[in-house]
Amino acid sequence: MTDPANEETPAPEAAPAKAKKGKGPKPTPRTRMAVALCLLGTGALLAADLGSKAWALDELSTERLSEPPPVCQPDESGYMRPQRLNAREPFVLVEDHMELRYAENCGAAFGLLRTAPPIARHAVFGTAAIAATLALLWMFATGRGGSAFAWSVPFIVSGALGNLVDRFRLGYVVDFIRVYWETELPWVGTQWPTFNIADVTITIGIVLLLIDGHRQGRDERAAEKAATDEKSPAPAEA
Asked: What distance in Å separates the CA atoms of residue 114 and residue 171, rounded to the nearest whole number?
């Protein structure tokens, strides 16, 4: 007869370790070639933006005959008047829908914050552009995000820097792409705010960021579901 006191009790099985949520594998830094291509793409898009703005200044506007008012500030009459005269005819791309027409934007993309004080605009736009540029380049170099994020970086960085160069060089941003239509739409009216190449690249970059975020979330949910299915006990056989 076995003494119960001396009987060996089997050690309890260790509980399976729980996977920590939100902590996937450490990202792998991107190669030097990938970083070089990112910088090259950023430079090409930036050159296209600044070159198109220089063309708009030369071909779509003329110098004022009188002394210009303070840059991006109301004059004696309370109006925000342009530094240059838009005296030249616009270049029509699509009849009754799209043309190239010179405009000066004291705000952000599509005219946002154009009525804010100049010091506030420079502080907000300068800080935001520099912070976004450094953050995106760091995330790209350290391997964060997926392929859509990698494509978004040159678009956003070039657009932010392009408008920032205009803001500090001229005091305003040169816009020249005008889209319009006959039917009046709610909140928009009959035309979209005049924009430039930088606004287009920023918009494309943001769309790519949203796509990347959607993909990352989908992959994380799929990984969590797969881990849960592995831990679930198999159904007992009848």
From this structure: 12
Confirm whether 51 is domain-assigned: yes
How many domains does the chain divide into? 1
Instruction: For helices 118-141 and 32-60, give the axis angle rounded to 10 degrees.
Output: 150
Instruction: Tell me the angle at which helices 197-231 and 32-60 cross, rounded to the nearest 10 degrees.
Output: 150
Residue 84, classified by CB atoms within 10 Å of its CB into exposed (0-12), middle (13-18) or buried (19+), is: middle
In a domain, 11, yes or no: no
Nearest to 163 by CA among 120, 196, 192, 203: 196
Give the residue numbers annotated as catalytic, written as ranges: 175, 199
Residue with tokens 């056989």: 237
List the domain range (segments joined by +) for residue 100.
Answer: 32-63+74-224
Torsions phi, psi for 178 (to 5 deg): -120, 125
Classify residue 155: in a domain, yes or no.
Answer: yes
* Tens digit of each residue's pLDDT, the chain (238 residues): 455 545 555 555 544 444 455 455 678 899 999 999 999 999 999 999 999 999 999 999 998 888 888 888 777 777 778 888 876 899 999 999 999 999 998 875 555 666 666 677 778 888 989 999 999 999 999 999 999 999 999 999 999 999 999 988 998 999 999 999 988 988 889 999 999 999 999 999 999 999 999 998 888 888 888 878 777 665 655 5
